Amino acid sequence: MARFLVTGTAGFIGYHLAERLLARGDEVLGVDNVNDYYDVTLKRARLARLEGRDGYRFAEVDLADRPALDALFAGFAPQVVVNLAAQAGVRYSLVNPHAYVSSNLVGFMNVLEGCRHHGVEHLVYASSSSVYGANTTTPFSVHDNVDHPLSLYAATKKANELMAHTYSHLYGLPTTGLRFFTVYGPWGRPDMALFLFTKAILEGRPIDVFNHGDMRRDFTYIDDIVEGVVRTADRPAAPDPAWSGAAPDPGTSSAPFRVYNIGNNQPVELMRMIEILEAALGRKAEKNLLPMQPGDVPATYADVDDLERDVGFRPSTPLDVGIGRFVEWYREYYQV
Description:
single chain, two-stranded parallel ribbon, globular, alpha/beta, seven-stranded parallel beta sheet
């Protein structure tokens, strides 16, 4: 049994992670500001499923509120921190950039300081496949340079990795960054394509298909994401004895710092995803073909060899299975 402070427990991944940790007997302090970026009712419904569980408590706190967050660290004394709270979304970062600075930079700074001053044994934090930006060599590897982000969201996630490395180097804080690839599944985010498509198709509305459908995504089922988070959280980052400043490897360090991809390692054409969704819903989609959105990328594809080597896990849930489970949840939750 360990004490986990998990930020973002009203969110999609944070909720599922809290469920998993509680099921195995860990103690969890959930933290979330429950903002209105998307449907607050859905966030409250996730939180309601955690309330009253043995070993769980919740604090509605914004990570940018430094005194409040510091008080949580001092009172709970977490052994492991998993930072999943962030302002999400590539497209939203084009219209509300300040939200990303407050949550993803100021908030993350406060988490780092909390870990530093309160003896945290391991910080695991959400990065994103978006950090690969203008990279075109696939599959994307953690050993590749990622200095060309294409959105402010991606830039803040890259900044989180740099900030974490600094704390690993200066204070010996073990940090592990997890680059998630297009997470989907029950209780998912309403701003993601699968959710948007499902809602529109069931309501008889056309779906917006960007880049005229010429997109590929490494869709990763939520249970696989959570398994990867738990396994890496249980294995604190350690220095890489082979790391050299003469030929620096971006994925490791002489400090206790690691970065992993968590993706399905099987990119799927967007049109194929739509076909699977149509089959699961028993309805055809009317497609509104649109150009590529600013800040978006045509393809994502995760190299997960390091994850498999270090923690013995490789995501494997087939897309048709995952979409089937999502549709089942969606119909039940929204009674449609």
